[in-house]
Amino acid sequence: QLEASLKTDADKVIAVILVLGEIGTMTDMSKIQNIITTISSLFSHENDQIRQAAAICLGSISIGNTNFFVEKVFALVAQSEANTKYMYMSTIREIINIKPECLSQYLPNLLPLYLEQARSDQGAIVNIVSESIGKLYIVSPGQMENDLIATLRSNDLASQNAVTKSFRYSAFKNSNAKSFARVVPLLVQQT
Predict the structure, then answer these.
(1) Per-residue pLDDT tens digits for 101-117
(2) How many other CB atoms are found less than 10 A from the CB of residue 106?
(3) Which residues of 49-80 are buried (b: 16+ CB within 10 A; e: fewer)?
(4) Would you say the C-alpha torsion 71, 73, 77, 81 has a positive or negative sign?
(5) Residue 187: its pLDDT value, please?
(6) DSSP character for 53?
(7) How many of the other CB atoms lie within 10 Å of CB of 3?
(8) CA-based diameter of the chain, in Å?
(9) Dist. CA 115–CA 124, nearest whole Å
(10) The pTM is what?
(11) Using CB atoms within 10 A of its CB, is residue 22 exposed (0-12), middle (13-18) or buried (19+)?
């Protein structure tokens, strides 16, 4: 039905997509045939609002069954073209915005993906990387700290910049000052 509704007006499509996403946060939608393909096909839609709604939807339905959806989304990021990569990164950001702790088990795969994307020549992708790393750091500082410190000490300026910016997001909503104890001296050195 979603495919058929694409031929109707954009507001209706956006509403349908967002409702599916909301329901998906509470319900396992992994049994719905071609749901990932159907939603992600909208990442190439001519209407930007539909593309954004699709990214939000895919992130939201991933919450309903992270074991099924998250690995598939990671794979799609890796194999996507530049024009859809931003949408998949937005999908992961949506998961982080809704339930960041559900990604803790995926950090060994997710952090290298983010550090690779930090080298993107697209500023929008780098911004999502910084925001996402920062928000994940709030819930999983112990799992991420060593990798982020290694990045700050590396010669990879693009990754350094993305990680440095990420701490702005984690400091904003983090009341645990101890989680920054090892990071602050490195940030001071970069000034």
Answers:
(1) 999 999 998 999 899 88
(2) 19
(3) ebbbbbbbbbbbbbbbebebbbeebeebbeeb
(4) positive
(5) 78
(6) H
(7) 10
(8) 56
(9) 14
(10) 0.84
(11) middle
